[in-house]
């Protein structure tokens, strides 16, 4: 019995051992699988990290290219002549092919020295601010270019939050060094030539959050203004009648000097005031509604300006408030209202009448913003008295709310992802920057600044540029015809890097946002003809690495390192909190926090597209100014025609004349094929906007009344219409997306577009939107024309765009022969829908 028990025990032990071995084998297999899984995940993380780094590298390149194109555009706006158009087009196109190379290939053994120098400069924004301030005192001619180099190269156009923080520190220091010590800081700010004004302008243009706010707040009211741009809306009553041609003036107001003339003029003034008040109130409402996305960085700067100037006690409180209003409205919001195309707010070319009306709105907004501190002209109180008191100054109060002691680092996300790994700069820019700092170091009497700069630049080699001196570091150079393989010498032509200035559309004299005086910079622009341009290429862009940057792959850090980073993050946050209050402006420690980028490649590609589009629009504006006499003759002859076919032929002939002139004009010879095609579209829009009222309503008041009858009929239908209306009977499966607001939005703005082609595109986008929404609602079937038509009719009734019948007639007259394919199909559906609505009843 005992032996049996032992046997059983041994058997059980063997079973347990075998079971344990099986468990161990299962555990080993699971561990092996987990190890393989972890290794696979690590490889995926590494691959994704490499893609992120590659995308970030492309983002830096695109940002650099977009900034150079913006500076090229600003050159053209400064000169506002056609003599530089060929050069600007060449520079804009050649920068697209920029060659980015590792800096050691060009700098050789000095690569590490320059890398350390640029990194020190980037991490010490207060030093840069002191240098910019002193550079202005000794009147260096390269100041404008240096400001551009600092923003584009040192701070990388602020595409990363850490660059934005450095730029904010620099701007605050410039406030203390320039505005706080000036006897008339507002005049200094308004003049626009001080380092703070220059840097703030570029900073607000680069800031992504600023673009979001401007688009959200201004797009809808600007589109609303563009839909009614047939008459000038003058603020000044003395200029109202002058805008009309003598014959038009006689028809509208009667004979000058008669009681009838005075009464008609007063009625027109009352109509103008009512129109301006309605339009401006819409701007105010949209700005107020979107104030939640106002850039925090700009709010912080406004608060800092108020705090610094109040502590300085050199100007009155009302002057301080007026300067803060200038910073927000005159230097940020109003320029975007006047030139919405350059900010990407709209892609519609602005007619000269619409531009003037936008300028009037911008002026009204600025006067209202200043009304708390400056008295309004009494003769204009019939206009400004219609607005609510403090309607704009209250918005400024909301912007100024908040702490003035917070650090700029608190304004951005503190997430760890990307930080800057390299600085993009050309060799000529690098040499210009070093020369500037050495000049300041030699001339300054500040011992701390002198010692700091000596430490930075003493070990750098003296810039050696063969040939004549090149103070502005031109990016474009001539191609060498020799077989020498040595690096090419930069050209002696002046740079197009440093020419950021006012837009070509000037605001009235009492609006100061474009009052900066850069005429001397514009006069120095080089003229490059097509033959010279063909022999030039872009200077290589050096990719200078930032030393000491640790590129650990996210998700693969050790626990100790993660804890150490969190500790360092808290420590750095505390240091940054005290950073801006320290008296020593020259001892700024390195920024260690890594922050997450908020941008994408598509945004910088859009910026490039906006620059190219606005360059073409500006070029067309200059081109048409040269042909203004012919344009006026065309408008007068068009008004004399009666038959629709004759009008269409007249328009086609004149457009072909202008298109042929563009093809043979030397100023367009360096433009690309896409730029030429875009120029033709802009020319067509400009010409059609001149004759739009006469072409849209060829029968005058008769057409207007006809459109009004249909508009009122559709208003009544809109009150009773439902998807189940007996004339529509839209299937219930499609009701989930009702009332299809995105499709309505495309039709609401149809009158903002002046060319038949653009109106067709509005209809096309509306129909495509409806078809996409119907497809999403019904996964089992593809919607057909029978499904589209009732929904299109419903959308038309709800959108109810004005001048609908005249719009159909306008497109049929001037574009019917060019309709084909998809455009013809959708336009037929749209026109049929309009005809169907005319016969609908209200039951």
TrEMBL record:
Residues 704-843 form the VPS9 domain. GO terms for cellular component: cytosol; endocytic vesicle; membrane. Signal peptide: none annotated. Gene3D superfamilies: 1.10.246.120, GTPase Activation - p120gap, domain 1 (1.10.506.10), VPS9 domain (1.20.1050.80). Residues 480-511 are annotated as: Disordered. One of its GO terms (biological process) is endocytosis. InterPro entries: DUF5601, RasGAP_dom, Rho_GTPase_activation_prot, VPS9, Vps9-like, VPS9_dom_sf. Residues 170-370 form the Ras-GAP domain. The keyword Membrane applies. Residues 480-494 have a biased composition (Polar residues). Its main location: membrane. It holds the Pfam family DUF5601. Keywords: Endocytosis, GTPase activation, Guanine-nucleotide releasing factor, Membrane. It is a peripheral membrane protein. It is found in: Membrane. GO terms for molecular function: GTPase activator activity; guanyl-nucleotide exchange factor activity; small GTPase binding. Belongs to the GAPVD1 family. Acts both as a GTPase-activating protein (GAP) and a guanine nucleotide exchange factor (GEF), and participates in endocytosis. This is Receptor-mediated endocytosis protein 6 homolog. It comes from Araneus ventricosus (Orbweaver spider).
């Amino acid at each position: 019995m005992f032996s049996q028990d032992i046997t059983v025990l041994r058997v059980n032990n063997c079973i347990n051992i075998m079971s344990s071995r099986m468990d161990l084998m299962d555990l080993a297999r699971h561990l092996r699988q987990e190890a393989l899984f972890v290794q696979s995940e690590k490889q995926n993380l590494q691959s994704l990290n490499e893609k992120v780094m590659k995308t970030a590298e492309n983002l830096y390149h695109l940002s650099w290219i977009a900034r150079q194109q913006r500076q090229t555009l600003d050159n053209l706006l400064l000169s506002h002549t056609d003599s530089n158009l060929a050069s600007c087009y060449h520079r804009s196109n050649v920068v697209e092919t920029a060659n980015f190379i590792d800096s050691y290939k060009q700098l050789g053994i000095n690569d590490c020295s320059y890398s350390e120098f640029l990194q020190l400069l980037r991490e010490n924004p207060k030093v840069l601010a002191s240098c910019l301030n002193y550079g202005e005192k000794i009147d260096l001619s390269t100041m404008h270019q240096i400001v551009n180099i600092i923003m584009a190269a040192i701070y990388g156009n602020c595409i990363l939050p850490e660059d934005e923080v450095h730029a904010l520190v620099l701007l605050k220091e410039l406030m203390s060094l320039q505005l706080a010590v000036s006897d008339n800081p507002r005049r200094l700010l308004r003049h626009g030539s001080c380092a703070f004004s220059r840097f703030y302008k570029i900073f607000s243009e680069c800031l992504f959050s600023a673009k979001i706010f401007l688009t959200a707040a201004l797009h809808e009211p600007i589109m609303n203004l563009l839909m009614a741009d047939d008459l000038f809306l003058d603020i000044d009553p003395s200029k109202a009648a002058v805008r009309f041609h003598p014959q038009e003036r006689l028809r509208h107001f009667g004979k000058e000097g008669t009681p009838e003339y005075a009464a008609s003029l007063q009625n027109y003034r009352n109509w103008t005031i009512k129109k301006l008040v309605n339009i401006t109130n819409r701007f105010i409402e949209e700005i107020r509604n979107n104030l939640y996305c106002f850039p925090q960085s700009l709010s912080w700067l406004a608060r800092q300006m108020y705090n610094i100037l109040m502590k300085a006690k050199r100007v009155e409180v009302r002057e301080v408030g007026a300067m803060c209003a200038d910073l927000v409205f005159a230097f940020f919001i109003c320029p975007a209202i006047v030139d919405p195309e350059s900010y990407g707010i709209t892609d519609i070319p602005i007619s000269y009448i619409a531009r003037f009306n936008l300028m009037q709105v911008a002026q009204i907004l600025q006067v209202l913003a200043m009304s708390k501190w400056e008295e309004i002209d009494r003769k204009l109180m019939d206009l400004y008295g219609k607005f609510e008191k403090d309607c704009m100054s209250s918005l400024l109060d909301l912007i100024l709310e908040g702490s003035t002691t917070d650090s700029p680092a608190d304004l951005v996300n503190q997430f760890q992802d990307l930080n800057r790994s390299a600085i993009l700069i050309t060799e000529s820019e690098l040499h210009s920057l070093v020369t500037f700092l050495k000049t300041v170091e030699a001339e300054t009497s500040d011992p701390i600044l002198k010692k700091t700069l000596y430490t930075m630049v003493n070990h750098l080699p003296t810039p050696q540029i063969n040939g004549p001196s090149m103070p502005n570091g031109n990016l474009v150079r001539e191609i060498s015809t020799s077989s020498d393989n040595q690096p090419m010498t930069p050209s002696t032509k002046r740079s197009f890097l440093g020419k950021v200035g006012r837009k070509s559309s000037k605001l009235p004299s009492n609006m100061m946002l474009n009052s900066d005086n850069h005429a001397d910079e514009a006069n120095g622009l080089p003229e490059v003809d097509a033959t010279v341009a063909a022999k030039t290429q872009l200077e290589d862009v050096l990719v200078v690495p930032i030393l000491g940057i640790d590129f650990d792959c996210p998700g693969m850090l050790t626990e100790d390192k993660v804890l150490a980073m969190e500790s360092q993050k808290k420590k750095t946050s505390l240091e940054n909190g005290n950073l801006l209050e320290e008296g020593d402006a020259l001892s700024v420690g390195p920024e260690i926090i890594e922050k997450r980028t908020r941008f994408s490649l598509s945004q910088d590609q859009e910026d490039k597209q906006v620059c190219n589009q606005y360059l073409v629009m500006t070029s067309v504006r200059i081109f048409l100014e040269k042909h203004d006499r012919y344009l006026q003759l065309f408008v007068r002859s068009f008004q004399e025609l009666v038959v629709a076919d004759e009008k269409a032929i007249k328009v086609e002939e004149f457009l072909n004349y202008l298109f042929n002139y563009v093809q043979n004009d030397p100023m367009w010879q360096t433009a690309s094929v896409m730029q030429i095609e875009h120029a033709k579209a802009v020319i067509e829009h400009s010409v059609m906007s001149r004759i739009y009222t006469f072409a849209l309503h060829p029968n005058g008041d008769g057409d207007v009344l006809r459109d009004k009858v249909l508009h009122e009929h559709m208003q009544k239908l809109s009150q009773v219409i439902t998807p189940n209306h007996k004339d529509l009977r839209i299937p219930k499966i499609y009701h989930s997306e009702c009332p299809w607001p995105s499709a309505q939005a495309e039709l609401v703005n149809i009158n903002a577009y002046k060319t038949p082609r653009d109106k067709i595109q509005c209809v096309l986008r509306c129909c495509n939107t409806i078809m996409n929404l119907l497809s999403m609602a019904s996964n089992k079937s593809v919607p057909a024309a029978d499904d589209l038509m009732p929904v299109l009719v419903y959308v038309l009734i709800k959108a109810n765009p004005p001048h609908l019948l005249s719009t159909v007639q306008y497109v049929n007259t001037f574009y019917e022969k060019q309709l084909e394919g998809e455009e013809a199909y959708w336009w037929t559906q749209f026109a049929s829908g309009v005809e169907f609505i005319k016969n609908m009843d209200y039951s």
